[in-house]
Specification:
Radius of gyration: 20 Å
Order of helices and strands: EHEEHHHHEHHEEEEHHHEEHEEEEEE
Strand content: 5-15%
Oligomer: single chain
CATH class: Mainly Alpha
Number of domains: 1
Number of helices: 11
CATH architecture: Alpha/alpha barrel
Helix content: 25-40%
Largest sheet: 4 strands, antiparallel
Length: about 425
């Protein structure tokens, strides 16, 4: 099949292929209920599957091998519980947890993208049921009756939620920003697939739930005085005073009213989140919990200041709705920060790689930021259409950019060339056309 290649100013010619190399290193044989090979996180995390790591890796690898990516989703279909839950990881019976838990549900978006790009209608329908059932678990088991918000436990949010006694917490206590936004996005994904499959009643319900959750986020998580979104402590009926990068996540899905977006964007470009060094710090620099982590992953401390591509990518997607110029700038700065440096997270002041040095989701999100955001490639398998809508910062509007050997759903290949901002698309396929 060959490895996709890119040419991008300021990015090493070998880095894109190296990112795929990191993913190859993280491949593991079927285990713990998975029926097909999968991606482990990398490094010392071993040959186990994790909900978020193993799904995000598929989002990047699909640009090289779509069958592997589809089979990766079939793995999650195989292990989904009767009530719709997708476990945190393969060792779901671990007795450390006080209740059944899941993960920050990035799987919604990954399954949606792979389903939308598949020519197999039965697979698309299976992805729809995976997403719909997983959403049902969140709504049934994590929704607070008073506020309408969703609560989260441990790594269902980042910073991981721990209870006051230092255990892994309980549901019904903590309503974080990031988890609520991921479920809002999941409801959009479900509505989109329902529309494609002709399930109009389901689509209507998902959109209704989405609207309810957006209203809850804007009512309970926004702090007008501070101009930011904060987690909510459900039992104590107050916001938690911890300013994290997740405050920017409501920019996604157009959750944020325009006047609030302007305040958030101003905060993003401040020194609080390192805009003039290595953005985006995962916690505000002035926050009492801000921590610089060097060496191995340190749980909550590593999410309290370190730079994570997971957070940056989410912020970029939100900025597209409100400030495309800034979205383009952050996308480019992020791939340059992580260029050839596929570490788990970065030290916020010098940009050095920390944690696992060759980490699957870092490599995968590096690939997706380049392919889907900077080059702006999207595929609609139902209509057999490829769209290329580049999002270029000023530094990329002059000169030559190219993406070659990008896998299409029918086995064809896509090549994109951008010269001084003008785009040329070549498709080696009898089925797909550029739009």
């Amino acid at each position: 099949m060959g490895i996709p290649k890119i040419r991008l100013k300021g990015i090493k010619d070998t880095s894109f292929s190296e990112a795929f190399g990191v993913l190859e290193e993280c491949k593991a044989e079927p285990a713990k209920g998975f029926l097909y090979p999968f991606f482990a996180p990398g490094g010392a995390y071993g040959a186990n599957w994790w909900n978020i790591d193993s799904s995000l890796a598929l989002a990047g690898y699909r640009w090289k091998n779509r069958l592997f990516a589809e089979n990766g989703i079939r793995n999650f279909i195989a292990i989904q519980k009767a009530d719709g839950r997708i476990p945190l990881y393969g060792d779901d019976a671990d007795s450390r947890y006080a209740e059944e838990i899941s993960s920050l549900p990035k799987l919604f978006g990954v399954a949606f993208r792979i389903a939308s790009e598949s020519e197999d209608r039965s697979f698309t329908e299976a992805c729809y049921h995976l997403i719909a059932r997983y959403l049902e678990w969140w709504i049934t088991h994590r929704r607070d009756r008073e506020t309408g918000l969703l609560s989260a436990v441990f790594e269902e949010t980042f910073v991981p939620y721990l209870g006051k006694t230092g255990d892994f917490g309980r549901s019904g206590e903590y309503a974080p920003v990031d988890t609520n936004i991921e479920v809002i996005a999941g409801l959009s994904n479900a509505a989109g697939l329902a529309d494609r499959l002709g399930k109009s009643a389901d689509k209507k319900r998902f959109l209704r739930l989405r609207g309810e959750l957006i209203r809850a986020v804007n009512r309970w998580l926004w702090n007008e005085e501070k101009g930011a979104y904060y987690p909510y402590l459900l039992k104590e009926k107050r916001q938690e005073d911890f300013l994290m990068a997740s405050t920017f996540m409501p920019l996604r899905e157009k959750v944020v009213p325009k006047e609030r977006a302007e305040r958030l964007i101003g905060l993003l470009q401040s020194e609080e989140f390192g805009w003039n060094t290595f953005p985006v710090f995962s916690a505000a620099k002035s926050d009492k919990r801000f921590t610089v982590t060097e060496g191995a992953y340190q749980y909550n401390a590593s999410w309290s200041g370190s730079v994570w591509i997971l957070l940056n990518e989410g912020i970029v997607q939100g900025l597209k709705y409100y400030d495309s110029r800034l979205a383009a700038e952050l996308a480019y700065r992020t791939v340059r920060e992580f260029d050839g440096n596929f570490a788990e997270f970065l030290q916020p002041f010098d940009g050095s790689g920390q944690g696992v040095k060759r980490y699957a989701w870092t490599a995968a999100l590096y690939i997706t930021l380049i392919a889907e955001t900077i080059f702006g490639i999207t595929i609609d398998a139902a209509r057999r259409v490829v769209r290329v809508r580049p999002l270029l910062c000023e530094a990329l509007k002059q000169g030559l950019l190219s993406a070659e050997n990008i896998a299409l759903p029918d086995g064809g290949r896509l090549c994109v060339e951008i010269v001084n901002g003008k785009t040329k698309v070549e498709i080696t396929s009898s089925a797909y056309v550029a739009e």
